[in-house]
Design brief:
Elements (H helix, E strand, L loop, with lengths): L1 H17 L7 H5 L1 H5 L2 H4 L4 E7 L7 E8 L2 E6 L7 E5 L1 H9 L4 H8 L3 E4 L3 H7 L13
Parallel strand pairs: 1-4
Antiparallel strand pairs: 1-2, 2-3, 4-5
C-alpha cells in the first residue's frame, strides 16, 4: 500500500512538470530565433522553416522563419513556399525547448512532429543559432 501511494505521488509530480502553464506562448520562444541567429554560420544559405501549431488553444497558428541574404526574419503566418514545415502541438514544442524530445526520434517513430518538405531543415536552422548557455532552452 505504501509503495503504491509513493508511485501515485511520483506520477502526479511528473504530470505537474509536464503541464503547460497558462502564460506559455510559443511566440515568446520563436521570437528568439532572429536574436540568436549567427549570420557567419549560415553563410549564403537561404532557408524557410514554418512552425505550425495545432490543438494548442491560444498557441495555434503558424510562424515562418526566413533566412536569406545573411539575415533572419520571423513573421506570423505561413508562406506558400517553404523548405520545411513542422506541424506539432505547443506541448511538443515545449518539450523540444526543454531538451526532452529529439527531432529524429519524434518525426518518424512517435509522430509528435510531422514534417513536410525537407526533414532536416529544422536541424539546419538550429545549426545557424548561437543559443546562450543561460537561455534556458536546448533548441528552438
Amino acid at each position: 500500500m505504501l509503495m503504491q501511494n509513493i508511485m501515485e505521488w511520483a506520477v502526479r509530480q511528473r504530470w505537474k512538470k509536464l503541464q503547460i502553464s497558462e502564460d506559455y506562448k510559443v511566440d515568446d520562444y520563436l521570437n528568439k530565433i532572429p536574436e540568436y541567429f549567427n549570420a557567419e554560420r549560415a553563410g549564403d544559405r537561404n532557408l524557410t522553416v514554418v512552425y505550425e501549431f495545432h490543438d494548442s488553444g491560444k498557441n495555434d497558428g503558424a510562424w515562418t522563419v526566413v533566412i536569406a541574404d545573411g539575415k533572419c526574419t520571423l513573421t506570423k503566418g505561413e508562406v506558400g513556399k517553404y523548405d520545411t514545415l513542422l506541424y506539432m502541438t505547443a506541448e511538443s514544442y515545449r518539450r523540444i525547448l526543454m531538451g526532452r524530445l529529439e527531432f529524429a526520434r519524434l518525426a518518424y517513430s512517435v509522430g509528435a512532429i510531422r514534417y513536410f518538405g525537407h526533414t532536416l531543415g529544422h536541424r539546419e536552422l538550429n545549426d545557424y543559432l548561437t543559443i546562450p548557455k543561460n537561455a534556458g532552452v536546448a533548441a528552438l
